[in-house]
Amino acid sequence: QVQLVESGGGLVQAGGSLRLSCAASGRAARAYFMGWFRQAPGKEREFVAAISPSGTYTRYLDSVKGRFTISRDNAKNTAALQMNSLKPEDTAVYYCAVRIRPGWDYTRDPSPSDFGSWGQGTQVTVSS
Q1: Which region, left, alpha or beta, applies to residue 103 given φ > 0 means left and ψ of -120 to 50 means alpha?
Q2: Residues 6+ apart with CB under 8 A from 61
Q3: d(Cα 28, Cα 72) in Å, to the nearest integer?
Q4: Beta strand 34-39 with 18-26: parallel, antiparallel or unpaired?
Q5: Cα–Cα distance for residue pair 110/11, rounded to 1 Å
Q6: I want to staple 8 with a disulfide (CB 3.0 to 4.6 A). Which of 4, 20, 81, 110 is the partner?
Q7: Which pLDDT tens digit goes with each residue over 75-99?
Q8: Hey, how many other C-beta atoms are within 10 angstroms of the C-beta on 45?
């Protein structure tokens, strides 16, 4: 099993930036896809971004393309989500996740069920 711990959330004004970090421990996460999801109050958990084990393939939710960047450092077993030009609608709890099984469907955005390990989440609040 992979243990994940997120950090870097907070309160920021619209147009500002935040960088979320995810530290993985236990079973090595470097062999698997990693992703970021978010969940706003009263809404379902939503895919935000994903990155392949090598870091050469990334995928984003349409509404964050050009504003968010996912990255990973396999030597440190970490992942990050750089969020720029934040909007109030980006307000949510953000979760880091690891797939922990091989394979990937490149034809669609992943769902939460595609990932097997989750962090506890970090709150991001964007004020208008």
Answers
A1: left
A2: 46, 47, 48, 49, 109
A3: 13
A4: unpaired
A5: 27
A6: 20
A7: 999 999 999 999 999 999 999 999 9
A8: 17
